[in-house]
Amino acid sequence: MLETMRQPLLELKDIKKTYPGVQALKKVDFDLYPGELHFLLGENGAGKSTLMKILSGSVQKDSGTILLDGREIAITSPRDADRHGVAMVYQELSLFPALSIAENIMAGRLPRRNLTGTVDWRRVHAECREILKGVGLDISTTTLAQDLGVGASQLIEIGKAISRKARVLLLDEPTSALSVHEVERLFSIIADLLGRGIAIIYVSHKLAEVSRLAHRVTVLRDGEKVGTLPVNDASEATLIRMMVGREVTDRYPKEIVPIGKPALEVEKLSLGRRVRNVSFSVREGEVVGVFGLRGSGRTSLARSLFGLEPRDGGTIRVQGRLTDIRSPVDAIRAGLGYITEERKLGLVLRMGVAPNMTFASLGSMLRYGLIDHAKERQAALGLVERLRIVTPHVHQLVEFLSGGSQQKVALARWLCARARVLIMDEPTRGIDVGAKVEVYRFLSEQAREGAGVLFFSSELPEVMSISDRILVMAQGELVATFNGGESTSDDIMAYAAGGSTNGPGGISS
Ligand SMILES: Nc1ncnc2c1ncn2[C@@H]1O[C@H](COP(=O)(O)OP(=O)(O)OP(=O)(O)O)[C@@H](O)[C@H]1O
Ligand SMILES: [Mg+2]
User: Fold this and answer.
1) pTM of the full predicted structure?
2) Alpha-carbon distance 152 to 145, whole Å?
3) Ligand 1 pocket test: which of 15, 16, 22 has the largest number of ligand atoms within 8 Å of its C-beta?
């Protein structure tokens, strides 16, 4: 199909971009055909978002050429991008929260009545309804943007772009915050758009999405293009090798370590209607995976264990001792460590990489009561190397790191601290393949040293591969428990989706 179209819709030649201390793009060529989904892959910090931002006009390239239909164009502002039909679909709302969907979509070009010059609201809502229909959304045009979930907002962004005659859509990790159901809906809209000749540049760390969506894949590494492949030549192994620059043989490393005494015992924990009467335990050396779909109460459970949302009832014991966790400070004191799903919550963006990493383990960084900066630096350097964090130096402000590198810094904090019970909520979201392997290794190491690990995830393959035991949550309750290796993904999904309470393993602790 693509071979028959000789003229790319969009062509990038020799694109370069340097930030202070970082060459984000070295000399990148890229092209895109009408109706094509071109997947952009690469490790954290490889330059993917930078390329997208240059196309959407929010960042200026230093040099290089952008051609549209074979003619050079200048994109120096989001306005230019819009004029040329290039639209970035933001995940976080670029919608105005307090305005209705209709007002958001039609902002800046509200149709007016000829005679009076007043806004023709009937037409606004009628046009808006068409747009919503186009992206398969069945909601009222008067709904306020602030009342929409991520999935719906994203679709509206797409609808808005299409109504503005966008020919190129830029999607940067669009599925990272969607439910299984929303992902399917997005994919079917994508298929429809491609069929209508719209072209898409798509960034994601989920390799399974490549074969599902892409026509071609381009891999970036350290700001350089490693290569472009048609999807049929792009096996996961090939792509990983291109991204990481080496062979990754075991994607889910897991050590078998002796299981000891209970590290965490939770009894009848409740938090409103979101977590109901949840009881379980995690032993020393054990990795317990908690699987649940979005909205199952997974994150609420993690947050209440760590004291971020005070529970209404229930008890929490750490190494046999009853605790009274009412705040994160209580939780840390009791020996819990927590990695949040929302990476920015855990980070101080205006602080450097090193202090962010050593934050929770200051005790071990002191010398005569002062922070030992040499020691802090040493610890940070080791972690930067291990997780392959792209940063010019360990004092770079975290706000200037790529999204995935920020997540890695948040993880690194707990690689420094020594928690007795480690609670990790979606720790691998948004990070690249190589770093995922490091996270799994880290879990195993922690377990080997006697920590209990509670690992919340919505990625079935990882839950199934690295857990000793799997708890399934649905509608705020624990609905099933499986021993590692004793369940199929169908079993787990059935419980997660159905919320039935008669699991084969029952609800044991
Ligand atoms: N505003 C900025 N100031 C300084 N450096 C920046 C800035 N924005 C990005 N960078 C750096 O440019 C490089 C490329 O970042 P980019 O966000 O494009 O990576 P990415 O491929 O999207 O990674 P991820 O998968 O983590 O999202 C990184 O080293 C990043 O730290
Ligand atoms: Mg990015």
Assistant:
1) 0.85
2) 9
3) 22
